[in-house]
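COMPLEX REQUEST
Ligand: 4'-phosphopantetheine
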Amino acid sequence: MCPGSFDPVTNGHVDVINRAAALYDELVVAVLVNPGKAGFFPVEERMELLREAVAHLPNVRVDSFQGLLVDYCGAHDIPVIVKGLRAVSDFEYELQMAQMNRELAAIETLFVPTAPQVGHLSSSLVKQIATFGGDVSRLVPKVVDDRLRERAAQDPS
Ligand code: PNS
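STATUS: Structure written out below.
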């Protein structure tokens, strides 16, 4: 399981998904819905972008879920969560979640260090840059770049 908000998917996510897909027979990439957060792209659109971004990986399935990650994993017999670590700053929060998920449901978390070329990427920076007309074409899959350009053209604020 590779969980996240994926709002939107970046090349950093794709790096982690590629590598997790090489480690396991099956990989679920799940958009976890945060009911308190509107999000930039609706969940259905995030899933559609993800599906296109991982279309080259036949053992990857994209899904969404609202609730506890461990409940989804339990219901689908998923034994491992895979998370990317960009920097030490990610580690503290990710460690806390990994420990909590293990306490809740004895589920293991595997940390994958992101490729250094994508270590500076985040969905929030990508959205900010794209909203102000910056070029994010090297940072996200083409389908996401196209969609961000459409959004910026519709809403040039
Ligand atoms: O891409 P993000 O926003 O860093 O992903 C965080 C996410 C969605 C993986 C995390 O918030 C999560 O697992 N949410 C589901 C709710 C849950 O299980 N919370 C308890 C975590 S210990």
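REMARKS: The beta strands are 2-4, 27-32, 60-65, 80-85, 108-113. DSSP finds six helices and five strands in the chain.
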